[in-house]
Structure formats: structure tokens, C-alpha cells
Amino acid sequence: MFNPKNIIKNLFWIYFILLLIEGGLRRWILPEFSNYLLLIRDPIALIILIVAFKNNLIPKNKYLSIVILVSILGFYTALFFGHGNLQVAIYGSRILLLHFPLIFIFGNILDRNDLILFGKVILLISIPMAILITIQFYSPQSAWVNRGVGGNIEGAGFQGTGEYFRPPGTFSFITGVTSFFTIVGCFVFYFWINTKKINFPLLISSTIAFLVSIPTSISRTLFFSVFISIVCFVIAKSTQKDFFKNSSRFIFGIFLIFLISSNSNVLNTQISAFYDRFTSANESESKTKSSGIGTIKDVIVNRVIYSTFQDIDENFIIFGKGVGAGTNVGAKLLTGDVGFLVAEGEIARILGEYGLIFGLIIVFIRIRMTYDYSINSFYLFKLGDQLPFMIFSISFIYTINGGWAQPNALGFYVIICSIWIASMNFNNKLTNEK
User: pTM for this structure?
Assistant: First the structure.
């Protein structure tokens, strides 16, 4: 029997799988079709929208309605007041017209069983992914495993520290690895709170893989995401009844992991590389001139606040440069070179593309979504539901400032926001009433 909800659930998995393998297809399997594979999830998104529309499964949502309207208007302002390139305008508009609605469709249809299954699957995938990025970490950029997009022999790794590069995993860029293991960390901590919901050997193995990924990725973004998840985990764990009694498996697991890690000479190299990267990057981003050493506060201010709003002044005009101009594809079509025509920071890019009026509307929607769903997560947490709270630990930053311009980042934005909304939609009417 035809069940549109089951079809959309299956398409959710296809969307996620394509997100995982897109980089591998573009780098290793079909490098000659790299440019076309950049849009590999777009047809899936279109099919989902058609199925949802025909079966009245698109939630009546004020966020979605406003964003769709702004996107349509932004398409025309790009043609008449911005760059004037039809291809670039279409490419840029697909972000809000094709992919943004998916977070509400998935969020409205996925149930708790789907989310628990998703958590188990991503923990299972984390094990070979950790092995892969470790191999990439130690391999030269000329190695096949580090081959770049389109078969580029210069490699896909991004400069990390010294002779070591940040590994891309199965993705086209390091941001994919960072986003992937951010989700892994969220579910690792959730299952440590609820150990009866998962196979314990899998939890131990995926926890080791997750811990290995932090220094191996040489990513400070992942490090800070993990820190936030740890804070939420400690809060959630401490509210459980018989906290000390129920923590025995967690303590045993951490001890076992520490025992394994401490006897690994290989991991010491990753940790040293990560420490060097962390220290050198902190120093370069620090505003503390007297000491010359960056504090955590300096890094957060520079990476989160400054990087978000940098370049706004030069792009802060009424109608903007036009939707799509801030993407790499848009830059290539407009100038022949890949680069940041608008801004590197996400909010600055939105304001630069859409202009003062429409850009601020989109930014406000993202902030309001984050506020409303965060309040809902805390409310459900008070009622004893830890899952929305743990997903909140990674999703609130993505909802406000997650990238849309790069397809890989856009895909993870969709997945992370979807599972956050889905974790709340069957416990409280707030999500469906928005």
C-alpha cells in the first residue's frame, strides 16, 4: 500500500547516504562528473517536495512561508538589481526553495524510532570513517585516498599543521568530517545516558572512533562542538535518578577507552598535531597583543562573532549582489574563478546576497527558529526527555550560522535541523504549530 510518509522516510535515508558519499564519488569513483555530482541531492529534494505537496505533508509553518516568499523575491531582485545572471540566480535560489523546506518535512515525519535508528547507524559508520581519516592523516596528499575533487592530484586535505593536513574523509572538504563527527558526538553522549538503547560494544567502539576523530581532524570547530555537547551531557546525566549507580557503565567504558588510547603510540602523533594547530591558530587569531597567546575567549570572539559579521559593510546594500553570488559555483559562473565574491561568513553572505531588507528577514528567521526550538528543547528536558536537549547542543549553532552556500554544508544543515525538530514534534504541539 502506498504510504507517502514511508516514502519520505526512505528518501531521508537516500539524502543522508548521498551526503556521505558525494565527496567520494567526486574524488574517487566518477571524478569526470564532479561538477554534476555537486547537485546529486537536488533531484531527491525535488521528489520529496512533490510527494509532500501532493499528500499535504508540508507543514503550515510561518518560518517556511516567509523564507519561500523572500527567496522568490530575492530571485527577481538578483536579476533586475543584482548580478543579472539567470544561472547563478537559479543555483542560489535552490537553497531556500529546494532544501530549506526539507527540515520541516523531515522534522514533521520522522519519529523517535527513526532517530534512534539514525543514531545507531551514524555510530556504526563512525568506526570506518575514523579509520579512513587516520589513513588520510598519515598519507601524503598525492596518495589516492587523499585525491581531490575531480581527481585533483594535489589532494583534498586542508592545511593543518606542519606536514599534516586536515583529512576530508569521504567528503569533498574537511567541513564534512567536522559536521559528521559533531553528530556522532551528540549521539555518543546520548547513548551513554541511555545505555540500554544500544549495543554496548558498539557504543564503546564508536566512542573510541569519536575520540580518535577529534585530534585526527585537526579541527577546532569539532573541538568546541564537543565541549558544548559534554556540558549538556553532564547536565543531562546528573539529573537521572541514582546518578552514581547508573554511571557505573559509563565509568567502566571511559576507563577501558583510556586504557586503549594510552597504549596507542599512533594517537600521540595526532594529539601533537592537533595541539600545534590549536596553539598556532589561537595565537594568530588572538587580540591579546601583550602576551601574544590567544585565550579561549579570543578564539570564540574571532571565530564565532567576527567571522560571522566580517565583510558586512562592503556588501550591506539595499538589494544585495544577488542570490547565488556568494557561492563558489556562482563566483565561477560570474568571474571564472572560485572565491568569496560576497563574504566568507554565513550571515554576511546572506546580507550581501539578499541585501538589507530581505537579508535581515532571513537572518531574523534563523535566530527566531533557534530561540523557539531551544526553549522547546529545555521544556522537554524538564519533563525528562534528554534527546532534544542533546541535539540542541549541536543544532543551535547550525540553525543560526550553519553554512548554506556549500552543498556539503547545506546537506548537514538539513540533517541536523531535521533531527532536532523531529526529536520534539511528538512530545509537544509547539513545533507543529509554528
Answer: 0.88
